């Protein structure tokens, strides 16, 4: 079952991103918006992995951490421009995902979840403990991207938060477009086939291990770019970005909105990013809420919020 | 449908976060929960208590203070969002906070961009060095604690020491700061040992130190339970040399953890707040620390902590600046904070300048010695 075609999904996404600022009373909302887009990007990557290919990863914050620290470290140590550093981080994440994914993806079910969990924790520990390189738990500064200055010279003067809203929104649309294209491609069909039944897929000639690896590497690149965007936007980064809770947040966003639909997963990112801002007094219970949301969705709405609502609406109409 | 849902979610945020009018709005983003809660919780309680007190007494310049506190859970990314929210949406005139060095460093750019004064409650010297126009802080630095310890060593004729430090953030940072300035005091490090944050026994490291010829004292920069274990092992091994602990464990909890017997004679630099009762009558800080201690313990029913003291000083400095400026304009407040002179707080006497946005000198620390499970001032 597909909720909407590629074009409508993209149109809705672009329209919301473009129209929402009209209702923003202050630039703080641009900040929340850009956080949503950054999370949305990571979650779109997880749609490919969880929704298309049916694999679970609890360590994707590790890739976000690699992307984030690449932006902090590569400009200092390798002399790369921050934008190139983000690309470098994505390439590094892809390589690591490839090397780690090959053995990990032979594992099925919760073995894969546990192995990826271990990977995520490993990255977070390295970032915390290699204080000489990463600044340890106190974090380190990230250089300015510099694109805002370039825009200013051509007459587009955006405030910092406005720029990051527009820029991360653009990257999200691009990411969503790629993920939607993938869905309808031969690779997408192969991924969905192995999601449905690995044995059946193998019988009809799908190279299961290869396609699982493709999905894993792709989602790692998405997570890495989202980490880079976060680092460049905040201009400061700490190992929290690679933390276990961040991995869980990503998966919960994906599953809550609907892992099978790009728009649904992004909706999950919208809800779980704005919720802590609305319910600031419940900060203490945030982790509890995450767990509860995940459980309730798994029990009552196994396809996620958006597909479930869509089906019930459609069901009533018939 | 999807559009409606998305806009509903956005509208929800818009509706709830609409700012209300108030006289003087002061913001704070603190780590009330999460791993740094033991710092952030007393800070938040202190701010709330003091604002209530100030408003009950008629406010500042005839205007009431409205305090907006957000809990960032120690996550720098969240702190950054809340900082943006405080500046852009709540339109505060000044912000206190950044419980940890990580959260403080993450939010400094927000305030420097928006030109809103910010007083950090975190320890690292990087926060105010190099000096940034709108950023200040109240806690003393590790380097000052090192200097206090080395001064005391020099006074008692100690020139050769052993160092055993925790490899956690605090221990590693303080060890580095101490080694940077130790040369100025003519003191030499003969043994330099470390232990992990979760180690349960430091006997091997201490045995190494004990075996080194010529060591006259041992210094232990560390935080949490490590220094308590060091102190216990130190007594068990009967090393018999003076043991110096850091300000990181300057609390009654440390004596309890190490045991009064093992902790006997241990020296460490602590703030006046810790020894409020035994401060001499003529001590300039006595009035401030006893007043804060009594008020805090009455309001919360919990023992006072140094960390709450940082928040106390930050708010008092801020209010003092608003009174002197006679205005609640962020730039006027900034100028007035920088002109703070001879302000007596719980951490020490603060005199800021354009080059020094901390403004504390070594008198902020008292050299304390543990005696029969209690504290003694050894100046």
Strand sequence of the main sheet of chain A, in spatial order?
A: 1-2
Q: Which protein chains are joined by the largest interface, and how many residues does each one contribute? A: A-B, 48 and 45 residues
Report the helical percentage of chain B: 40-55%
- Using the alpha-carbon principal axes, give the shape of chain A: globular
What radius of gyration of chain A results from the CA coordinates? 19 Å
Largest sheet of chain B: 5 strands, parallel
N- and C-termini, Cα separation of chain B: 73 Å
Low-confidence segments of chain B, ≥5 residues, pLDDT <50? 7-21
Structural class of chain B, please?
alpha/beta
Helicity of chain A, in percent? over 70%
Morphology of chain B: elongated
How many DSSP-defined strands of chain B? 14
The rounded Rg of chain B comes to 22 Å
CATH topology of the largest domain in chain B: Rossmann fold
Percent of sequence in beta strands of chain B: 15-25%
Q: Helices and strands of chain B, in N-to-C order?
A: HEHEHEHEEHEHEHEHEHHEHHHEEEE
Average pLDDT taken over every residue of chain A: 87
CATH class of the largest domain in chain B: Alpha Beta
H-E string of chain A: HHHHHHEHHHHHEHHHH
Number of domains of chain A: 1
